[in-house]
Design a protein that fits this description.
Blueprint lengths: L5 H9 L2 H15 L1 E7 L2 E2 L2 E2 L5 E5 L3 H6 L8 E6 H15 L2 E4 L8 E3 L1 H12 L4
Parallel strand pairs: 4-6
Antiparallel strand pairs: 1-2, 1-5, 3-4, 6-7
Helix pairs in contact: 2-5, 4-5
Length: 129
């Protein structure tokens, strides 16, 4: 995957959360990968004021890398779209977790249910099949 130009990267981070969500869906369907953060202790989770846990994800390594420091994790890590759809999302549904889609380094993202994200990704992937 190629590096994004810094102007494109900055412009995409400035998009409103719903626009970043739509971009996430398109790019993940196209590139067939999801990025998140992990450390030696495991995968990164964030939680809202009510204590509901969410798993943060990005469409490109650069966006995940930009959040490594703000989330105290060591590295970004790739998950294949197939594993994401077949293993990760069903697991999060069973655990009662949400997904924090495309948060920015200052923490602003959109939180959705795993089933909503699955449905949106499958709808976007249909033309590729």
């Amino acid at each position: 995957m190629k590096q994004m130009h810094s102007k494109e990267f900055d412009a995409l981070l400035q998009l409103p959360a719903p626009d970043r969500y739509a971009l996430f869906i398109r790019r993940v369907a196209d590139w067939e990968e999801v990025w998140s953060l992990r450390s030696d202790d495991g995968w990164c989770l964030v939680s809202d004021d009510d204590g509901v846990e969410a798993f943060p994800v990005w469409p490109h390594q650069q966006f995940a890398d930009a959040c490594v420091n703000s989330m105290d994790k060591e590295t970004s890590a790739k998950i294949s779209l197939q594993d994401w759809l077949e293993k990760w999302l069903p697991g999060m549904m069973g655990d009662g977790r949400k997904v924090a889609v495309f948060p920015t380094p200052n923490g602003q993202g959109i939180v959705v249910s795993p089933s909503q994200l699955r449905d949106d990704l499958l709808a976007e992937c249909e033309p590729y099949e």
